[in-house]
Amino acid sequence: MGRTERAEVRRFVGHLAGINAVALSADGKYALTGSADGTARLWDVQSGAELHRFVGHIAGVVAVAFSPDGQYVFTGSDDRTARMWATQNGSELRRFTGYTGSVVSLAVSPDSKYLVTAGNNVVSIWQVVGPGNLATFTGHSGSIFAAAFSPDGTRLITGGKDKTVRVWDIHSRQQVKQITMDNAVVGIAVSPDGNSVFIIDDQSTGQRGAGSGSTIGYLWNTRTGAETDQRAIAGTVYSVAFSPDGKYLMDGDSHLAANVWDARTETLTCSFPNKAIVGIAAFSANGKTALTRSRDGTAGLWNTQSCGKIRDLADPTLITSELSPSPESAAISPDGSYVLTGNPDGGIRLWDAYTGAELQAFIGHVDSVRSAAFSPDSNYVLTGSADQTARLWDRRTGQLLRVFTTPAAANVVAFSPDGGTILVATDDGVARVWDFDYLATIQSLCAHLTRDFTSEEHAQFGIGGDSPTCPKALVQATPETSSLAESLRLAIQANNLWNTTGGDRQLALLLATRAAELSSLPFARTVLEAAVAAPQVLTHSAGVTGLAISPDGRYVLTASQKIAYLWDRHSGQQIRTFTGHGATINAVAFSPDGKTILTGSDDHTARLWDVQTGMEVRQLKGHTTSVLSVAFSPDGKTILTGSGGFSLSGDTDTTARLWSVQTGNEIEEFLHQDWVYAVMFSPDGKYALTASQDKTAQLWNIKTGQIVRTFSDPARQANGWSVAFAPDGKSVLSVTWDGTVVLWDVSTGKPGRQFSLPNDKIGTAIFSPDGKYILASEASSKTVTLLDLQSGSPLASFAGHSDSITGLAFSSDGTFVATTSKDGTALLWSTDTRDLVTRACALISRDFTDAERSTYGISASGPTCPQPDTTGAPR
Does the reported pTM lie above 0.85? Predict the structure, then answer.
């Protein structure tokens, strides 16, 4: 059969580089393309017109997909992220991170609820709308038998068959500590203060629930990783727990008892005898009650003060053998009102702790239930089973809310202390974490609704289906539920406004802050966190070449081409421009009092400007080539400039110069052998620091003009682009040609500590105002990283630019940083560590107007935030 020739129907033209991926919408009306130019584009198939451009990736887009319902577009990139966008307006809705390489493949489930991403030998499943992404903690080489959260929820501790205990950072998802034991780890208990962990080391066969030998218990300091105590326990211990006050330890063992010990003296204080092996031992939240679960199918409640039994909770239909290899599960609710028991047949029962009556049966598991837990508010139940699922239930209704499918038996389940995260540790040696906040929000809201949608509302808002929005109704409105409803409404409005292109950032922050103040709804907090974390974007028509922040942190100064721009830090509005230079501005600076700015340009001049009026005050002439760097002295009386480039005659100026602010006269000249890219004063103003392309950084005495110190080493040659004084003036930072930060001792001139990034070279770097951190730009990945000076470890990354970084700056109080790029943007990032509402208020410069209070139904008339001081603001 001959080949059929097909005519070209439509051509889509607009990308600036090769197209790597294409997709068609389910209805065939739209085409989606991803390109090496870092963008994805949406096209109308019928007309060929470009409808939206999805901009934000900082490397090529290599995978694209539509959701089957057409509401969302997904992109995967070489920048190690996948992103979710609104098809309707092109706004970025969500970012999926955590990959160490390109995200090369995407797939969306038929119901549009799940996204699958693949890259660097890792496949991840994400929930598109609802609970957050599935995080995995991989490192164990065998089954995980024990897992627990630290009391503050920032750490996860796991132990298992591979004879290790591993400590993980929840936020970075990195292992931060490993403790190697002599045998399999079968139990972990974390002290209430988080400083100690008690580890049960099984002396038998290394199989959970096997053998009846002796057990060694080890106490370790979680901060230092040092062993502080150990004790031998007769028999095999299956469970261990600290009392809420940390004074006692309880174990459940093969000698048919649960024993309570004084944690300090190791004195036995109580023993709770059982008729079979005790697999579970736990304290109530107030420490007055103990729960035991044994192999005969019974659970016992005990008084920890009298050491007497309160009652048995027996399930006679599910009596198991003492030698059963399947450990039973049980949990007592934080409020002490309920007990949960799980059995080898998959059955789960809820009991009244006060009366012993069975209240609820949770039906769904088809194999033994290995672990159970209550949420901190006692309203939800989480169970893990050998059927390779964990299940989330509503304790009040018995309703199954969600099934978490795992590749192996779910041995351990837990809620984080704040209830926002679910943990499932499995037989394959992996701990997995899900976000519970969204689901908890929906369930709590349903508990407060007083009605469902009307038929008119179904039609008005396009709500499909006729099933109830919530499982059941519903209570009468109260002041509490009214605040809850207003909080949710404002959070939704803030979220929508935030994700609208050109939306009012200040109004979105106000709405989100008010929502968080009204209630503790996780959704309201999530919206506010996203608003606070998102960078403020200052857009220019060309690459940004200069950056400075005013001493009071209210204003940001940038330069692009021949113009300098003054911006309001809070609103992101441009206040003033400074025009007059005849060529590109390379550097800008604020005077210490914030009243004057300094610019340096390719037109060979530096210029002083009045911040209030925007008028030029003085020109500093003397350099014969471009002024590449500028700085004010700490007292504001003198100026440093650095020069480089070639004149029309081919000559080059390789000097740094000192000028008088008052007269504009040159005071001193400091000579390098090549272009001077960076200049600055020492904190006390006595010295000038310069960095040159001649591979040296030099320290000069301001009064004598003589070189005091040269920071240079054959193995650590400065790149000439980046030097900085530490705030205490005792050390100097320089960046080498191989992308390493070197700290030099000012008193000796000798190099000291070095810092580098694992995945890229460092381009430029600066100190934080308190000297505790270093902010470094990555040379090729367009990312900025915050490093801890003491440990050298990365603390945070700021990724948002689509071209190379040109500038870095800290605010004087350290609560935000600014970055600039050749992509034409300056981005302002929050580094504030105060509470969330306080951080939000630091970004807000106004309150609701009367019209906004009416439009958005703001119930309170008082200020949302303390009123900012606006005296002395430029007009």
Answer: no
